[in-house]
Amino acid sequence: MSGKSLLLKVILLGDGGVGKSSLMNRYVTDRFDSQSFHTIGVEFLNRDLEVDGRLVTLQIWDTAGQERFKSLRTPFYRGADCCLLTFAVDDVQSFQNLGCWKKEFMYYSDVKDPGRFPFVVLGNKVDKEEERQVGLEEARAWCEENSCCPYFETSAKDDTNVTAAFESAVREVLAAEDQIGHTLLSSTIDLHGNRKSTRSSCC
Ligand SMILES: Nc1nc2c(ncn2[C@@H]2O[C@H](COP(=O)(O)OP(=O)(O)OP(=O)(O)O)[C@@H](O)[C@H]2O)c(=O)[nH]1
Ligand SMILES: [Mg+2]
């Protein structure tokens, strides 16, 4: 295994209140706050992990889902390696808005190869089964039709599928990278020294 860690930027998008911050906090700090505040602008946290023998530093960017913060979040889309489109299974409107989130991301991120860009879809709050408004098959069908696979049903509250979802995002990036010839993998962190990156980023 190499001593260098690959830096990957993933970005969480979705309506306000679907649980983006809660998912990030569950994954990075293993905590859940039932009284969390709406995010203003963007925040990020890092977590180191190993996926299929590769050391990865996952930089998770958590954005504000509320419309009034649009101009604060969109400048941070550039340089993302994967986009996690998030809705809450007890909120059908947040599911119906997934297409708008995808469009917003594509418009502002300026990705080089839109056809191959990796998305992962998260249907959060599955612990609220009795209040569910979006079915598993319906969500899977949307993902298939919109080339946004894989799909994970998560709960930040119960820690259901949270690790699996973030690790899957890493695997999607690595798989996409394998297809386009390892250009992205030139961005690395030397764990014993300084960060080296050949990618440009506005952030
Ligand atoms: N039951 C349940 N509640 C959750 C879950 N995830 C988040 N919540 C709650 O939903 C509310 C909103 O969660 P946030 O994580 O702040 O939502 P957000 O998507 O970051 O919202 P914005 O920052 O406004 O975009 C909070 O009260 C959380 O405690 C979950 O998996 N299950
Ligand atoms: Mg938030």
TrEMBL record:
UniProt topology in membrane: Lipid-anchor
Location of this chain's protein in the cell: Cell membrane; Cytoplasmic vesicle, Phagosome membrane
InterPro entries, alphabetized: P-loop_NTPase (IPR027417), Rab9 (IPR041824), Small_GTP-bd (IPR005225), Small_GTPase (IPR001806)
GO biological process: protein transport; Rab protein signal transduction; retrograde transport, endosome to Golgi
Main location: membrane
Membrane-spanning residues: none
UniProt EC number: 3.6.5.2
GO molecular function: G protein activity; GTP binding
Cofactor: Mg(2+)
Coiled coil: none
Keywords assigned by UniProt, alphabetized: Cell membrane, Cytoplasmic vesicle, GTP-binding, Hydrolase, Lipoprotein, Membrane, Nucleotide-binding, Phosphoprotein, Prenylation, Protein transport, Transport
Reactions it catalyzes: GTP + H2O = GDP + phosphate + H(+)
Enzyme class: hydrolase
Family the entry assigns: Belongs to the small GTPase superfamily. Rab family.
PANTHER family hit by this protein: RAB FAMILY (PTHR47981), RAS-RELATED PROTEIN RAB-9B (PTHR47981:SF17)
Protein name as annotated: small monomeric GTPase
Species annotation: Muraenolepis orangiensis (Patagonian moray cod)
